[in-house]
Design brief:
Chain lengths: 325, 525
């Protein structure tokens, strides 16, 4: 058995693709489907190719198209772990599907062993926006969160997203350094599912969810706002968060970027951060989110979504961390 | 085969025992003749010339084996056929060019929307498969005239997403999220509001159709009315629907009530009473077992709900949850050897109840997006890689008898199954109803029932499942009813149920409209 086959076998066990019925419910929330109408580029297509005995190589284009937003997984009636399926298949390709220059380009610092119990991982995108980064860190400090140098784990995440299997030693070093951690706030939703798997003792939450727990932040959200949930973290813990955000909607009167299935409609911008442009045009997604809606303001959780909405004329955009600064 | 024989056959055929009987042996379907439905299949002739002609017109044909393999079955998962190539629908002009070339080269073209058929009606046994989902745009919403114009490949769910931004909703659609507008207009489209609003096909205002010879025509009740009547409920025989204008309504959250019955007959009679008297906005029957029958009643407005409770509730013989629970407890207390059955009922109820009332879809006791909730749960609890859902569509008079007979067939073959029954309001006498899922003797209302075994993890042979379906379809032949699943693997029953004269009449119309018989050749004729 080649290594690739062994890995694929592993992914089959984990994703449950064999239970896929082909119902197509996942496509309804998929930005790739929304923009291409090509079923072979969706997780429904990938699962069927595998069921028919196909190999990852047969779906290279399809694997590259996915922005790993996770919307499909949160609605799948058969419980297929669609994100696991796609990431594992990407890693099973000999060279991943990310552009070569995107792979392994950041080698973060080996994290020091931390004794803190509450950590904030701002992620590479947020670090680039000094103002928002500082606002978020300041708010979280008030709740006892320590800002953590997460460049190493961000680099590992970027690699994984691009289809590079993480180096076991690097990963082990990271996990050992986190032993005492009880709470992690990670701005990059892609990390949530992995952090939960690697650090089962820690409670992992998104930045939006955490800030919304502060009364003054929630109060600052207006009924005329359109609130853009960060989709990757939301879908990674959908059954819990769907109720949390629904309550927030009812309390504030704002609108959400959710579909009728209560999946968060993604712009897909985060999926391009490490891999460059693909089949999903974030601007088109944003236009669909705004279709027949006239919000006075768009509030975003994900820094990658800020620019997408700012590019749409006449739209005022603010990050959740700026609401009370 | 006697009842007891077939039960033994049923037990043996569940492949839990590898020493089970041989399902493909010539005598394995005793009393159920095998049918060769299409002895003269197209053999691939003309394909290369056809594809070359299409490519010369910039029409893409994908011949990749993985892609073709993806399209090799439908939701039933029992009929398999490999198309030679796939084209994603792009425009009426493109489809027109395809059909003109198909006539010239005599290459079959099978049209697929959501592909939610279960008898292989949307499976291409060779030739070109035209995936209509490439045409999925919602073109315009006319809130003044309460209509929407959309391309025919759009999923009902996508249509609902767009309409909702204007506070609107479609009228009726199948409860599965991923059927397409065009595919549904071609077969019917039954919702739990169909007792009031009829089927989706009757809610079409006008259509754009590409005829089998490639003409692009607009049609409605007043323009090209013949074509309109042929294409609605036409199973894709008389043209490809490329756009449709549909009636819409204001979106409303819904209040639901469930009444429980120990008798299937009583539940069916009560359902018919509610349908006849227009007592509810939505109603239907869903069984857990034939002694645990659920009559669902729902309302768009407080007024209608109040009127129901003032006038009709007391006439229903069903119980509320508590009353029924006590009766069942008493029933099983007297029959302790049936504890397994009682536990199944309890378990199923505990699974289904929260799934059908999820907190994030409820507001002020009303369910928002009932179609999403129901559609998802249908897949979750009844979906699978193989789906066996034979059905019967009957007139009011034959409903109870047909369903009781179908229920007895289910019981012979499967330990657990669900019946789903609804009424369908007919809109007068329409040509489109002839030789369709609407039974010939139905007036005012028709009734439909799906018989759906819960296959679970048990592996049944294809022959076993087919034998079950055939027995249900035989009831239709004997009682002269119709079927909702109409064609594909069960097309042999169409001739038997409707008679040669009617089938020959439609075949002659088909030959006239489609001289080379290339459009959806494996569905009906
Ligand atoms: C889980 C499940 C639940 C279901 N629930 C319901 C329900 O509640 N109510 C109900 O009514 N049905 C129900 N059905 C049946 C199914 O919804 C219908 O068969 C469906 O509406 C067909 O739509 P489709 O887009 O899937 O069509 P397809 O399966 O793709 O096609 C159906 C037929 O129409 C033809 N066709 C497709 N598109 C076009 C077009 N544009 N122009 C002309 N012909 C076309 C095809 O060739 C085929 O013969 C269910 C099926 C499943 C599997
Ligand atoms: S929703 Fe799930 S079961 Fe349905 S097609 Fe998608 S992955 Fe498969
Ligand atoms: S993760 Fe997102 S982009 Fe990828 S298949 Fe699922 S819905 Fe589509």
């Amino acid at each position: 058995m080649t290594e690739t086959t062994a890995e694929l076998l592993n992914s089959r066990i984990r994703s449950g693709y064999e239970h896929c019925t082909g119902c197509g419910v996942c496509m309804l929330t998929c930005p790739v489907w929304n923009q291409t109408r090509d079923i072979m580029l969706t997780v429904c297509g990938r699962a069927r190719v595998l069921q028919n005995g196909g190999a990852p190589e047969d779906m290279r284009q399809s694997l590259a198209a996915c922005v790993l937003c996770g919307a499909c997984g949160s609605v799948c009636p058969a419980g297929v772990d669609t994100v696991a399926l796609t990431t594992e298949l990407r890693m099973s390709l000999a060279d991943g599907t990310g552009r070569p220059e995107a792979q392994n380009r950041i080698q973060g610092k080996t994290p020091p062993v931390t004794t803190a119990q509450k950590l904030f991982f701002p992620g590479s995108a947020m670090r680039r926006d000094e103002n928002i980064f500082r606002s978020a860190a300041r708010l979280l400090e008030q709740d006892g969160y320590i800002l953590f140098d997460d460049t190493e784990i961000s680099a590992i995440a970027a690699d994984m997203e691009a289809g590079v299997r993480p180096d076991q030693d690097r990963l082990t070093r990271f996990i050992s350094s986190m032993r005492g951690v009880k709470h992690i706030i990670a701005a990059d939703g892609f990390l949530h599912r992995h952090l939960r798997q690697w650090l089962p003792g820690a409670r992992v939450a998104g930045l939006g969810e955490t800030l919304l727990a502060r009364p003054e932040v929630k109060k600052a959200i207006k009924s005329t706002d359109l609130y853009i949930i960060e989709p990757r973290g939301y879908h990674a813990d959908h059954s819990r968060l769907v109720n949390l955000y629904d309550r927030m909607r009812l309390e504030t009167g704002c609108r959400l970027n959710t579909s009728l299935q209560r999946a968060a409609i993604p712009t897909g911008a985060a999926g391009m951060r490490n891999r460059g442009p693909g089949r999903v045009d974030p601007a088109e997604q944003a236009r669909w989110i705004l279709h027949h809606r006239r919000p006075e303001r768009v509030v975003v959780e994900d820094i990658d979504d800020m620019q997408v909405f700012k590019n749409i004329p006449g739209t005022e955009v603010i990050h959740i961390a700026q609401l009370v600064s | 085969m006697k009842g007891s024989d077939i039960s033994a056959f049923a037990a043996a055929a569940r492949v839990s025992s590898p020493a089970a009987i041989d399902h493909v042996a010539p005598d394995s379907l005793k009393g159920i003749p095998r049918r060769q439905t299409n002895p003269a299949r197209w053999n691939g002739k003309g394909w290369n010339e056809f594809v070359t002609a299409l490519r010369a017109r910039n029409i893409e044909v994908c011949e990749n084996r993985q892609t073709c393999g993806f399209y090799s079955s439908d939701s039933g998962g029992l009929a398999y056929g490999m198309p030679h190539g796939i084209t994603l629908a792009g425009s009426a002009a493109q489809i027109s060019a395809i059909l003109k070339q198909a006539q010239l080269h005599r290459v079959p073209v099978t049209v697929k929307g959501g592909g939610l058929t279960t008898e292989g009606e949307s499976v291409a046994f060779g030739g070109l498969l035209l995936d209509m989902r490439g045409m999925s745009r919602v073109i315009s919403v006319d809130a003044q005239n309460m209509t929407v114009r959309a391309e025919a490949g759009v999923y009902w769910h996508t249509l609902a997403e767009v309409l909702r931004r204007d506070g609107l909703d479609y009228l009726s659609a199948p409860l599965n999220l991923t059927s397409s507008l065009g595919g549904t207009l071609a077969v019917g489209g039954i919702d739990i509001n169909s007792p009031r609003l009829g089927c989706s096909a009757d809610q079409a205002v006008s259509l754009q159709v590409v005829t089998p010879t490639g003409e692009i025509k607009e049609c409605s009740e007043t323009l090209n009315a013949d074509l309109f009547e042929r294409v609605l409920l036409g199973y894709g025989q008389f043209g490809v629907i490329t756009e449709a204008t549909m009636r819409v309504r204001k979106f409303t959250p819904v209040t639901m009530h469930y009444f429980y019955y120990g008798s299937l007959r009583e539940a069916m009679e009560d359902l018919q009473m509610l349908v006849r008297e227009d007592a509810a906005d939505y109603c239907g029957i869903l069984t857990i077992m034939d002694k645990a029958v659920n009559l669902l009643v729902a309302f768009d407005s407080d007024g209608r709900e109040r009127a129901f409770f003032a006038g009709w509730r007391k006439r229903l013989r069903g119980h509320g949850e508590l009353g029924f629970g006590l009766r069942m407890a008493w029933h099983y207390a007297l029959r302790p050897w049936r504890v397994g059955e009682a536990l199944y009922l309890l378990g199923r109820k505990q699974e289904l109840e929260p799934a059908f009332n999820p907190a994030h879809f409820m507001e002020d006791g009303r369910i928002i997006d009932r179609a999403v909730v129901f559609g998802n749960q249908v897949w979750k609890f009844w979906g699978g890689r193989k789906m066996v859902i034979p059905d019967l569509a009957t007139s009011a008079d034959k409903f109870v008898e047909a369903i009781e007979r179908g229920n007895a067939v289910c019981k012979k073959y499967f330990p657990r199954y669900t019946l789903y029954c609804v009424g369908i309001k007919l809109s007068g006498r329409r040509e489109r109803y002839e030789m369709s899922c609407v039974p010939p003797d139905a007036a005012g209302f028709a009734y439909g029932c799906e018989f759906e075994p819960i296959l679970g993890d048990t592996v049944y042979s294809r022959e076993y499942l087919q034998a079950f379906k055939n027995e249900i379809y035989e009831i239709g032949v004997e009682m002269k009813t119709s079927y909702y699943r109409f064609g594909g693997m069960m097309k042999g029953y169409i001739r038997r149920a409707f008679g040669d004269e009617l089938v020959e009449k439609h075949l002659a119309m088909k030959r006239l409209a489609d001289p080379a018989m290339i459009l959806n050749p494996d569905v009906i004729f």
